[in-house]
Amino acid sequence: MAIRTWGRVLLTSLGVSLLVGAGQLGVAYGFGLVRFGRAFADGIENQWHAQLTWVAWFAIVAAVTGALAADRAARRLGYDGGLRMLAGLAVSASIGAAGVALITMPAAHAARLTDGTDPAGAVGTAVLAGAAAGLPLAALALWQRAYAWALIAVAAAAWLLAVASAVPSFGPGQEMPAVRLGVLDPAAFSTGTVQRLAVVVMPSLALIAGAAVGAVARRREWHTAVIATSGLLGAAPLAVAYLAAGPGGPADAYQAAPFWGSLVALAAGALGSLLAVVTHRTDVKDPDQNPPPVRGEPGDPDSSPGGPGSSSEAGSPAASGVSVPDVTLDPAAPGAVDPRHGPDLGESARSRHSDKLHRLDQHGRTSQYRHTGHNGEVRPPRNEGR
């Protein structure tokens, strides 16, 4: 049963990667992103390198997508082969992505190059380079979910840029524009504006994607090293695709501008994810650390005199560890005060105290107390009924 499941998962990885690669080529042909049937001469020689960039990138995306889809299918079947399954899915997806060369090479024969290069061979080499680069990227995406999010985010944004560049030229009588990977290339923009955007767009995209994915991964408390490198990995397919196609010739900067922009995007993506790590602040306090004592509010039982948190108890000699000698006072000594009864109030004070008690007795509020006649002490009466 395990062998059968393993075979199904590998076939899923192979088939999905091949299907995704072919689907991307179909969309690229429809939007005019890839057009082999023309002569790349008379000032547009570097557009051929832009075509190679697209097909290399398609292979990378196909490999990563096929591996992720097969991993999802394996989990639904309840199969988890560990590192062996991870490596197998990455290899199978890379093989399926390499099959895209069988679709692109026949169409590339229609291209006419001035330098005598075999167009079919150049396209096949670019696809194989992309498929080879897709193998470690797919393995990393299967290993860490943050890497998969970063790769998906950058790939989706690159496709949105391509569609936004091609759609304005769908009107009747308008020529399809030459759109580069990761560049906003609408026909309405001037050449200077497009060239400046070619250097800025990919680094900006990688920076935003790295910061966003890093923030989400940090909130989930994933490993710091994974978070810090997620932005770098997200921009890697763009850089690898441009490296596979090359910076182009010296005729113009049509291919060189996005080529260097893709390399800068690697640093920008890494910076975005590092910012997510540095700016993270946790609001959870350590329960093992006791907070400093805070003065209680009025009415707090812990802040009342003699309560558990009172300052008089904390500052008493017994609490501070200072020994206090036992001092016994002689009640017969001159000026001595009996601690049980307090100071001698004198005859006049005792008489006033007695008169007050008698006045309260008339109102029935102190009927259970009587005056003992000794230093003004008031004690409860004896229970005469017992």
Structure description:
The chain has 386 residues and is mostly helical. It folds into three domains: 1-143, no CATH class; 145-280, no CATH class; 342-380, no CATH class. Helix content is 59%, strand content 2%. It has twelve helices and four strands. The chain has helices at 2-31, 47-76, 83-98, 101-108, 119-143, 145-166, 191-219, 224-245, 256-278, 311-314, 317-320, 347-362; strands at 39-40, 112-113, 370-371, 378-379. A two-stranded parallel sheet has the order 1-2. It has a two-stranded antiparallel sheet with strand order 3-4. A hairpin with a 6-residue loop joins strand 3 (370-371) and strand 4. It is globular and about 55 Å long. Residues 282-329 and 335-386 have low confidence and may be disordered.
What is the number of E strands? 4
Specify the overall morphology: globular
In which range does the helix fraction lie?
Answer: 55-70%
Gyration radius (Cα, Å) is 42 Å
Quaternary state reads: single chain
C-alpha end-to-end distance: 92 Å
Mean pLDDT reading: 78
Instruction: List SSEs in N-to-C order.
Output: HEHHHEHHHHHHHHEE
Q: Helix tally?
A: 12
Task: Tell me the major beta sheet.
Answer: 2 strands, parallel
Q: Strand content of the residues, in percent?
A: under 5%
Taking pLDDT < 50 over at least 5 consecutive residues as the criterion, the unreliable ranges are 282-329, 335-386
Order of adjacent strands in the largest pleated sheet: 1-2
